[in-house]
Design a protein that fits this description.
alpha/beta; 9 strands; three-stranded parallel beta sheet; globular; four-stranded mixed beta sheet; about 240 residues; single chain
Length: about 240
Amino acid sequence: MPCYNEAARLPTQEIRRWLIAHPDFGFLLINDGSTDRTGPMIRALANDLPDRCAAIDLPRNQGKAEAVRHGLRALLVRSPETIGYFDADLATPLDELPRLLAALRAAPDCDLLLGSRVRLLGHDIRRRAARHYLGRCFATAASVCLGLAVYDTQCGAKLMRVGPWIGPLLADPFHSRWVFDVELIARYLQQVRRCPRWPEGPCGIVELPLLCWTHRRGSKVGPMDFLRAVLELWRITRLYPRPRR
């Protein structure tokens, strides 16, 4: 769970209660060089639940991409079956985690499970209209660049089945600061597309529509970041070209 200046938004007591009620889960919170009280808050939570929660302080702000990569690599040392990352503002409620994990375990060919913010009847997805439509434009472009019919690359709720593929995936820093999720998928596809099962078999990625997602105030993403994201998407396309079939 990457955290940068989240002192006003990080619901530590909610996280604490949820972890106590769900013994199959543990959290690693990454303080990405925050200048507010985020560091002391996550360390206090880790000290309160040392067997279920840990905290890491990065000496300076390196961006969400590097905070996530650093955290995932730290988790691999513990030899877990499943790892993933989750936004600290809990726009995706913690109660979605058991659903995500169950879906990953139920799909033996799935290595990477993406939470997806799809507006469906019976689902409570609350996004600002402008972000929703900009997000749809970006998702369409990302889908074309990846050669993959993915609906939502940017939702901050993803799980990964630990296997030999995951070490190389996280070995190098991401080139993208804003859309590293797309780069993560592109790196994975580079490996999968070398395998005999591609393109006839499953690609190893599954999307699960979330039952609930709520936009939170205080997002670090501004209007200009959409333009940066488009430029980074173009760069990812150059770095990870789709193979010819």
